[in-house]
Amino acid sequence: MGALDHGRIPTHRLMAAFTSAAQVHVELTCRQMAFLCRLATDGGKSTAYYAEKLGVSKPAITRACDRLSVLGLCHRKGSDFDRRQVVLTITSEGRALLEKVASAQVEG
């Protein structure tokens, strides 16, 4: 996942991840997959941080987090430093899914 360490995720990497996710029977949108990948690399940041990094609105990140939370892939909690902020992190289930997706990419 080296390409995920730099700013925006290249489209070809995101599409490969999305295709691999479909192969492991996960129904996520491209935006949700990009968000999950970003959570894996930059976990513990605010909604505003992820919105800026992914080039989407804060409400879009909130919706993506809502969906990922329902699936058990993302966790949301209040910041220890600023009660107005929400910190978003990937769960162990989310990491396991990304590992499955990475394996499917290697195999496919």
Automatic annotation (TrEMBL):
- Report the superkingdom from the record: Bacteria
Molecular functions per Gene Ontology: DNA-binding transcription factor activity
Q: Which GO terms describe its biological process?
A: response to stress
InterPro entries to which the protein is assigned, alphabetical: HTH_MarR-typ, MarR/SlyA-like, WH-like_DNA-bd_sf, WH_DNA-bd_sf
All copies of domain HTH marR-type, residue ranges: 1-108
State the name under which the record lists this protein: MarR family transcriptional regulator
Organism taxonomic ancestry = Bacteria, Pseudomonadati, Pseudomonadota, Alphaproteobacteria, Acetobacterales
